[in-house]
C-alpha cells in the first residue's frame, strides 16, 4: 500500500487571496460571476484551513478573545437557526431557504470571520504579509487618485462603461458629481465607502511610519467625494489628538469645531431662506447632512415631495419592536441585502434589510441588543481601550469601521473587511505579543 503526502503553502494562498480582493472590482468588470466564485472559493479555503489549525493549535489566553469567538458563534447561530426555522414558519422548502441564507452569508456575514485567516501564519510570515499588504494598499491609493484625475480630464465614460459589468454602477451615478469632482468607484466599487477605505489606509500608513503615503491617503479621501469619510476623518482627527495626548489642542479644536459648525449651519439656513443659488456645492453638502438626520425617522410623502412624514428606518424599527418586544434581545434574525426584487417577490419579503443607509439599525434589527452590545465592544470599546494604552495606529481601523456602520454596510466590501480583519486579529487572536512578554 502506498500513500502520498500533500503540502499546502498557506502563506502563498493568503497572498493570492488578498491580491484578488484588491483587484476584485476590476476582475468583476471583465468576468463578474467567475470572479465572485473565485473570491468565495479563496475565502472559504482560507477559513477552512484556519479553523482546522485553530482547533489543533490555538489556545485562548485572554477574555477579549472569548468575547470575539462568542460574537462569531452568535452570527453563525443566527444563520443556522434561520435555515432551520424559516422553512417551517414561511412554509417554503428547506433548500430555498438554504440558498438565500448561503447567498447572504457570502455577501455579508462571512466578512466578520476574516480575522481567523491570519491564525496559521507564524510571526515571520505575518511580517512578510504585512509588507505585501502595504504595497497593495499603495496601489489602491494611486488608483483612486488616477481615476479621479482621468475622470476630470474627460475619461469618466470609460470608467462607467468598464464598471457597468461589475454591478456597481447605478443610474443615479452616471455623470454624478460632488464638490466639483466625480463620484468615483476606485477598487472598493462604492463611491460612499471609497473614502472610508482610505481613512483606513491613512492609519495603516501611519502604522508603517510612512508619512508620504499617509498624505496621499488623505488626498484620496478628498478625491473620493465621500461625505461620510469626511465626517469620519474629523472624528478620527479628534481621536488622534486624544491618542497623542494633546489635550489642550483637543479642547481648543473641539470648541473651534462647534463654533464653525454653528456658523456653517446658520449660513446654510440664511442661503435657503434667501432663496439664493450662491455656493451651490456648499448648500448640497450641508443639505445632505441635514437630510441624513431627517431621513432616519421620516420619508418623503409621495403626493408632496416637499413634505416628510414618519416612516424612516428608525421609526419602522421602533414600531416593530413595540409590537414584538420579546425579539429586542436577540433580534428578528438574518435579513437579506441582495437584489430587492428577488426578495420582495419571494416569501422572504418580511426579511429584507431594514435599510442600507443606516446599517447599524439593520444590524440591531438582525441580531438584537445582545449582538449589538457584542459589536460595540469588539469594534469600539476594546479598540478604544487599546488605543489609549498601546502605541499602535492599527487600533484606529476597527473604530473607523464602526463609525462607517452608521451610514452604509462596510462589511459587504471584502477589500475593506480584509483591512479591518488584520487589526482585529492583532487585537483578539494574535499570540505573538503574549509570547514576547513571556520571553
Q: Which terms would index this structure?
A:
globular; 17 helices; 2% strand; two-stranded antiparallel sheet; disordered C terminus; two-stranded antiparallel ribbon; mainly alpha; 4 strands; 439 residues; single chain
List the helices and strands and how they pair.
Blueprint: H1 10-22, H2 24-30, H3 32-57, H4 63-89, H5 94-107, H6 123-164, E1 177-178, E2 181-182, H7 191-207, H8 211-224, H9 227-243, H10 247-273, H11 280-295, E3 298-300, E4 308-310, H12 313-323, H13 340-344, H14 359-389, H15 396-404, H16 414-429, H17 432-438
Antiparallel strand pairs: 1-2, 3-4
Helix pairs in contact: 1-3, 1-6, 2-3, 4-5, 4-14, 6-7, 6-8, 7-8, 7-9, 7-15, 9-15, 10-11, 14-15
Amino acid at each position: 500500500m502506498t500513500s502520498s503526502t500533500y503540502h499546502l503553502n498557506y502563506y502563498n494562498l493568503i497572498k493570492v487571496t488578498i491580491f484578488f480582493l484588491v483587484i476584485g472590482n476590476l476582475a468583476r468588470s471583465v468576468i463578474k460571476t467567475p470572479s465572485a466564485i473565485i473570491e468565495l472559493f479563496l475565502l472559504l479555503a482560507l477559513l477552512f484551513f484556519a479553523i482546522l489549525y485553530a482547533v489543533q493549535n490555538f489556545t485562548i489566553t485572554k477574555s477579549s478573545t472569548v468575547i470575539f469567538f462568542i460574537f462569531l458563534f452568535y452570527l453563525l447561530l443566527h444563520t443556522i437557526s434561520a435555515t432551520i426555522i424559516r422553512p417551517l414558519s414561511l412554509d417554503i422548502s428547506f433548500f430555498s431557504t438554504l440558498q438565500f441564507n448561503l447567498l447572504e452569508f457570502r455577501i455579508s456575514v462571512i466578512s466578520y470571520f476574516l480575522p481567523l485567516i491570519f491564525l496559521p501564519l507564524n510571526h515571520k510570515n505575518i511580517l512578510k504579509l504585512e509588507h505585501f499588504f502595504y504595497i497593495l494598499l499603495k496601489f489602491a491609493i494611486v488608483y483612486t487618485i488616477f481615476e479621479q484625475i482621468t475622470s476630470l480630464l474627460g475619461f469618466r465614460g470609460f470608467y462607467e462603461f468598464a464598471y457597468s459589468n461589475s454591478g456597481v454602477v447605478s443610474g443615479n451615478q452616471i455623470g454624478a458629481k460632488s464638490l466639483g469632482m466625480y463620484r468615483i468607484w476606485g477598487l472598493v466599487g462604492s463611491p460612499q465607502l471609497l473614502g472610508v477605505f482610505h481613512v483606513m489606509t491613512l492609519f495603516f500608513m501611519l502604522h508603517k511610519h510612512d508619512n508620504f503615503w499617509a498624505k496621499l491617503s488623505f488626498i484620496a479621501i478628498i478625491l473620493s467625494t465621500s461625505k461620510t469619510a469626511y465626517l469620519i476623518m474629523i472624528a478620527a482627527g479628534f481621536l488622534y489628538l486624544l491618542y497623542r495626548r494633546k489635550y489642550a489642542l483637543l479642547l481648543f479644536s473641539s470648541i473651534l469645531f462647534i463654533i464653525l459648525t454653528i456658523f456653517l449651519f446658520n449660513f446654510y439656513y440664511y442661503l435657503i431662506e434667501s432663496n439664493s443659488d450662491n455656493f451651490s456645492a456648499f448648500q448640497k453638502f450641508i443639505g445632505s447632512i441635514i437630510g441624513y438626520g431627517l431621513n432616519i425617522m421620516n420619508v418623503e410623502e409621495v403626493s408632496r415631495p416637499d413634505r416628510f412624514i414618519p416612516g424612516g428606518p428608525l421609526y419602522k424599527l421602533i414600531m416593530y419592536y413595540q409590537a414584538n418586544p420579546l425579539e429586542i434581545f436577540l433580534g428578528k434574525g438574518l435579513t437579506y441585502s441582495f437584489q430587492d426584487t428577488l426578495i420582495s417577490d419571494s416569501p422572504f419579503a418580511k426579511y429584507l434589510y431594514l435599510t442600507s443607509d443606516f446599517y447599524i439599525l439593520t444590524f440591531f434589527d438582525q441580531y438584537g441588543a445582545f449582538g449589538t452590545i457584542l459589536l460595540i465592544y469588539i469594534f469600539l470599546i476594546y479598540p478604544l481601550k487599546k488605543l489609549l494604552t498601546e502605541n499602535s495606529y492599527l487600533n484606529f481601523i476597527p473604530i473607523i469601521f464602526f463609525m462607517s456602520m452608521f451610514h452604509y454596510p462596510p462589511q459587504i466590501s471584502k477589500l475593506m473587511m480584509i483591512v479591518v480583519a488584520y487589526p482585529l486579529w492583532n487585537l483578539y487572536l494574535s499570540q505573538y505579543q503574549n509570547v514576547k512578554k513571556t520571553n
